[in-house]
Specification:
alpha/beta; 16% strand; Rossmann fold
Length: 259
Protein backbone atom coordinates (compact mmCIF):
# COMPACT_ATOMS: atom_id res chain seq x y z
CA UNK A 1 0.00 0.00 0.00
CA UNK A 2 1.47 3.35 -0.99
CA UNK A 3 0.98 6.27 1.36
CA UNK A 4 2.03 9.86 1.65
CA UNK A 5 1.91 9.81 5.45
CA UNK A 6 5.25 9.75 7.22
CA UNK A 7 4.99 8.21 10.68
CA UNK A 8 8.72 7.67 11.08
CA UNK A 9 9.78 7.70 14.71
CA UNK A 10 6.24 7.14 16.00
CA UNK A 11 5.20 4.17 18.08
CA UNK A 12 1.70 2.72 17.95
CA UNK A 13 -0.26 0.27 20.07
CA UNK A 14 -2.94 -1.72 18.25
CA UNK A 15 -5.32 -3.81 20.36
CA UNK A 16 -6.74 -6.90 18.76
CA UNK A 17 -3.63 -6.61 16.65
CA UNK A 18 -3.37 -10.28 15.74
CA UNK A 19 -6.72 -10.38 13.94
CA UNK A 20 -7.39 -9.50 10.33
CA UNK A 21 -8.37 -5.86 10.79
CA UNK A 22 -5.82 -5.13 13.51
CA UNK A 23 -3.06 -6.80 11.52
CA UNK A 24 -4.01 -4.81 8.42
CA UNK A 25 -3.91 -1.55 10.37
CA UNK A 26 -0.55 -2.48 11.90
CA UNK A 27 0.84 -3.28 8.46
CA UNK A 28 -0.23 0.13 7.14
CA UNK A 29 1.31 1.92 10.13
CA UNK A 30 4.59 0.07 9.66
CA UNK A 31 4.62 0.86 5.93
CA UNK A 32 4.24 4.53 6.86
CA UNK A 33 7.34 4.30 9.07
CA UNK A 34 5.92 3.64 12.54
CA UNK A 35 6.85 0.83 14.90
CA UNK A 36 3.93 -1.08 16.39
CA UNK A 37 3.15 -3.15 19.47
CA UNK A 38 0.29 -5.59 19.06
CA UNK A 39 -1.86 -6.38 22.10
CA UNK A 40 -3.98 -9.49 21.79
CA UNK A 41 -5.19 -12.45 23.84
CA UNK A 42 -4.38 -15.05 21.17
CA UNK A 43 -0.73 -16.03 21.53
CA UNK A 44 -0.56 -18.21 18.41
CA UNK A 45 -2.05 -15.50 16.20
CA UNK A 46 0.30 -12.94 17.73
CA UNK A 47 3.30 -15.05 16.79
CA UNK A 48 2.01 -15.36 13.22
CA UNK A 49 1.39 -11.62 13.00
CA UNK A 50 4.88 -10.74 14.23
CA UNK A 51 6.44 -13.13 11.73
CA UNK A 52 4.44 -11.46 8.97
CA UNK A 53 4.97 -7.84 10.02
CA UNK A 54 8.71 -7.97 10.62
CA UNK A 55 11.21 -6.28 12.88
CA UNK A 56 9.29 -3.07 13.60
CA UNK A 57 6.49 -5.08 15.19
CA UNK A 58 6.44 -6.36 18.77
CA UNK A 59 3.72 -8.04 20.79
CA UNK A 60 2.28 -8.57 24.23
CA UNK A 61 -0.31 -11.20 25.07
CA UNK A 62 -2.93 -9.88 27.48
CA UNK A 63 -6.60 -9.64 28.28
CA UNK A 64 -7.64 -5.98 27.93
CA UNK A 65 -10.32 -6.54 30.58
CA UNK A 66 -7.56 -6.91 33.19
CA UNK A 67 -6.65 -3.53 34.72
CA UNK A 68 -3.25 -4.61 36.01
CA UNK A 69 -2.31 -6.39 32.78
CA UNK A 70 -3.18 -3.28 30.75
CA UNK A 71 -1.19 -0.96 33.03
CA UNK A 72 1.80 -3.31 32.93
CA UNK A 73 1.61 -3.53 29.14
CA UNK A 74 1.51 0.26 28.80
CA UNK A 75 4.51 0.61 31.11
CA UNK A 76 6.39 -1.99 29.06
CA UNK A 77 5.79 -0.05 25.84
CA UNK A 78 7.03 3.18 27.44
CA UNK A 79 10.09 1.37 28.79
CA UNK A 80 10.92 -0.11 25.38
CA UNK A 81 10.02 2.79 23.10
CA UNK A 82 9.93 5.91 25.25
CA UNK A 83 6.43 6.99 24.29
CA UNK A 84 3.13 5.96 22.72
CA UNK A 85 2.19 8.23 19.83
CA UNK A 86 -0.75 6.29 18.43
CA UNK A 87 -3.38 4.06 20.04
CA UNK A 88 -5.80 2.06 17.90
CA UNK A 89 -8.55 0.50 20.03
CA UNK A 90 -9.48 -2.31 17.68
CA UNK A 91 -10.09 -5.34 19.95
CA UNK A 92 -13.65 -6.59 19.79
CA UNK A 93 -15.98 -9.59 19.82
CA UNK A 94 -19.28 -10.09 18.01
CA UNK A 95 -21.17 -12.20 20.52
CA UNK A 96 -24.37 -14.15 20.00
CA UNK A 97 -26.54 -13.39 16.97
CA UNK A 98 -29.91 -13.65 18.71
CA UNK A 99 -32.85 -11.43 19.68
CA UNK A 100 -32.56 -9.71 23.03
CA UNK A 101 -34.93 -12.15 24.78
CA UNK A 102 -32.65 -15.03 23.83
CA UNK A 103 -29.36 -13.25 24.53
CA UNK A 104 -27.78 -14.58 27.69
CA UNK A 105 -26.63 -12.16 30.39
CA UNK A 106 -23.16 -13.73 30.26
CA UNK A 107 -22.89 -13.03 26.53
CA UNK A 108 -24.16 -9.46 26.85
CA UNK A 109 -21.72 -8.75 29.65
CA UNK A 110 -18.79 -10.34 27.80
CA UNK A 111 -19.36 -8.24 24.67
CA UNK A 112 -19.54 -5.01 26.68
CA UNK A 113 -16.55 -6.02 28.79
CA UNK A 114 -14.32 -6.50 25.74
CA UNK A 115 -15.67 -3.88 23.35
CA UNK A 116 -16.31 -1.04 25.79
CA UNK A 117 -14.82 -1.70 29.22
CA UNK A 118 -11.61 -3.02 27.67
CA UNK A 119 -11.37 0.06 25.45
CA UNK A 120 -11.88 2.23 28.53
CA UNK A 121 -9.07 0.48 30.43
CA UNK A 122 -6.69 0.77 27.49
CA UNK A 123 -7.59 4.41 26.83
CA UNK A 124 -7.23 5.24 30.51
CA UNK A 125 -3.77 3.70 30.64
CA UNK A 126 -2.42 5.06 27.37
CA UNK A 127 -3.88 8.56 27.51
CA UNK A 128 -2.60 8.92 31.06
CA UNK A 129 0.90 8.25 29.75
CA UNK A 130 0.46 10.39 26.64
CA UNK A 131 -0.28 13.35 28.90
CA UNK A 132 3.22 13.05 30.36
CA UNK A 133 4.91 13.08 26.95
CA UNK A 134 6.58 16.08 25.39
CA UNK A 135 4.41 17.22 22.48
CA UNK A 136 5.49 17.29 18.87
CA UNK A 137 4.26 20.07 16.59
CA UNK A 138 1.63 19.75 13.88
CA UNK A 139 2.39 21.15 10.41
CA UNK A 140 0.74 24.36 11.63
CA UNK A 141 2.78 24.51 14.81
CA UNK A 142 0.21 23.22 17.30
CA UNK A 143 1.24 20.76 20.04
CA UNK A 144 0.42 17.08 19.50
CA UNK A 145 1.03 14.45 22.17
CA UNK A 146 -0.78 11.60 20.49
CA UNK A 147 -3.66 10.19 18.49
CA UNK A 148 -6.31 7.73 19.65
CA UNK A 149 -8.39 5.97 16.99
CA UNK A 150 -11.30 3.82 18.14
CA UNK A 151 -12.67 1.18 15.79
CA UNK A 152 -16.42 1.34 16.40
CA UNK A 153 -19.08 0.14 13.95
CA UNK A 154 -21.97 1.30 11.83
CA UNK A 155 -24.09 -0.79 14.20
CA UNK A 156 -23.18 1.63 16.97
CA UNK A 157 -24.81 4.43 14.98
CA UNK A 158 -27.88 2.61 13.68
CA UNK A 159 -28.38 -0.43 15.89
CA UNK A 160 -28.84 -3.87 14.38
CA UNK A 161 -31.45 -6.52 15.05
CA UNK A 162 -30.01 -9.70 16.54
CA UNK A 163 -26.94 -7.82 17.78
CA UNK A 164 -28.07 -5.71 20.71
CA UNK A 165 -24.95 -6.29 22.79
CA UNK A 166 -22.56 -5.53 19.93
CA UNK A 167 -24.53 -2.45 18.84
CA UNK A 168 -24.73 -1.14 22.40
CA UNK A 169 -21.02 -1.68 22.98
CA UNK A 170 -20.09 0.21 19.82
CA UNK A 171 -22.53 3.03 20.58
CA UNK A 172 -20.81 3.30 23.94
CA UNK A 173 -17.43 3.42 22.24
CA UNK A 174 -18.63 6.29 20.06
CA UNK A 175 -19.75 8.19 23.17
CA UNK A 176 -16.46 7.37 24.91
CA UNK A 177 -14.63 8.83 21.91
CA UNK A 178 -16.54 12.10 22.11
CA UNK A 179 -16.10 12.42 25.87
CA UNK A 180 -12.36 11.70 25.90
CA UNK A 181 -11.88 14.05 22.95
CA UNK A 182 -13.43 16.88 24.96
CA UNK A 183 -11.32 16.03 28.01
CA UNK A 184 -8.06 16.06 26.06
CA UNK A 185 -8.81 18.78 23.50
CA UNK A 186 -6.36 21.24 25.06
CA UNK A 187 -3.73 18.59 25.81
CA UNK A 188 -2.57 17.86 22.27
CA UNK A 189 -4.32 14.49 22.04
CA UNK A 190 -6.64 13.90 19.09
CA UNK A 191 -9.34 11.27 19.68
CA UNK A 192 -11.50 9.94 16.85
CA UNK A 193 -13.52 6.89 15.87
CA UNK A 194 -14.17 4.98 12.67
CA UNK A 195 -17.56 3.35 12.06
CA UNK A 196 -17.05 0.73 9.35
CA UNK A 197 -19.63 -1.55 7.87
CA UNK A 198 -18.81 -5.24 8.04
CA UNK A 199 -15.30 -6.05 6.82
CA UNK A 200 -13.94 -9.22 5.27
CA UNK A 201 -12.36 -10.54 8.47
CA UNK A 202 -12.55 -13.60 10.70
CA UNK A 203 -15.41 -11.96 12.62
CA UNK A 204 -17.45 -11.81 9.40
CA UNK A 205 -16.94 -15.55 8.97
CA UNK A 206 -18.78 -16.14 12.27
CA UNK A 207 -22.10 -15.10 10.74
CA UNK A 208 -24.44 -17.27 8.69
CA UNK A 209 -24.92 -16.87 4.94
CA UNK A 210 -28.44 -15.55 5.58
CA UNK A 211 -27.16 -12.98 8.06
CA UNK A 212 -24.38 -11.97 5.68
CA UNK A 213 -26.89 -11.39 2.88
CA UNK A 214 -29.05 -9.28 5.20
CA UNK A 215 -26.09 -7.09 6.18
CA UNK A 216 -24.97 -6.78 2.55
CA UNK A 217 -28.46 -5.68 1.48
CA UNK A 218 -28.18 -2.64 3.77
CA UNK A 219 -24.98 -1.36 2.13
CA UNK A 220 -25.76 0.75 -0.98
CA UNK A 221 -22.35 -0.01 -2.51
CA UNK A 222 -23.21 -3.71 -2.33
CA UNK A 223 -20.03 -5.01 -0.70
CA UNK A 224 -18.19 -5.24 2.59
CA UNK A 225 -15.43 -2.76 3.37
CA UNK A 226 -11.90 -3.92 2.63
CA UNK A 227 -9.39 -4.06 5.48
CA UNK A 228 -7.06 -1.83 3.45
CA UNK A 229 -9.78 0.82 3.18
CA UNK A 230 -10.13 0.94 6.96
CA UNK A 231 -6.36 1.03 7.36
CA UNK A 232 -5.99 4.00 5.01
CA UNK A 233 -8.46 6.05 7.04
CA UNK A 234 -6.72 5.07 10.28
CA UNK A 235 -3.42 6.26 8.76
CA UNK A 236 -4.77 9.76 8.24
CA UNK A 237 -6.39 9.81 11.68
CA UNK A 238 -3.03 8.81 13.18
CA UNK A 239 -1.03 11.42 11.31
CA UNK A 240 -0.10 14.99 12.17
CA UNK A 241 -2.35 16.12 9.31
CA UNK A 242 -5.26 15.16 11.58
CA UNK A 243 -4.78 17.90 14.15
CA UNK A 244 -8.22 19.55 14.51
CA UNK A 245 -10.75 16.74 13.99
CA UNK A 246 -10.87 15.55 17.59
CA UNK A 247 -14.18 13.97 18.55
CA UNK A 248 -14.93 13.16 14.91
CA UNK A 249 -16.75 9.94 14.01
CA UNK A 250 -15.73 8.87 10.51
CA UNK A 251 -18.11 6.74 8.46
CA UNK A 252 -16.93 3.80 6.35
CA UNK A 253 -20.24 2.15 5.55
CA UNK A 254 -20.52 2.29 1.77
CA UNK A 255 -23.43 4.71 2.05
CA UNK A 256 -25.39 2.85 4.73
CA UNK A 257 -25.13 5.84 7.05
CA UNK A 258 -24.53 9.32 5.70
CA UNK A 259 -24.31 11.18 8.99
Amino acid sequence: MSTRYDLSGRHAVVTGGAGGLGRGIAHALIEAGASVTLWDQDGDSLAQAIAELGRRASQRQLDIRDLHAVDAAADAVISAHGRIDILVNNAGVLGEVRPIWETTPDNFQRVLQVNLFGAYLVTRAVVGRMLRQEPRRSPDGHPLRGHVVNIASIQGKEGMAMAAAYSASKAGLIALTKSVAKETAKEGIVVTAVTPAAAETAMAKEISAERRADIMSRIPMGRFVEVAEVARLVLWLSSDDCSFSTGGIFDLSGGRATY
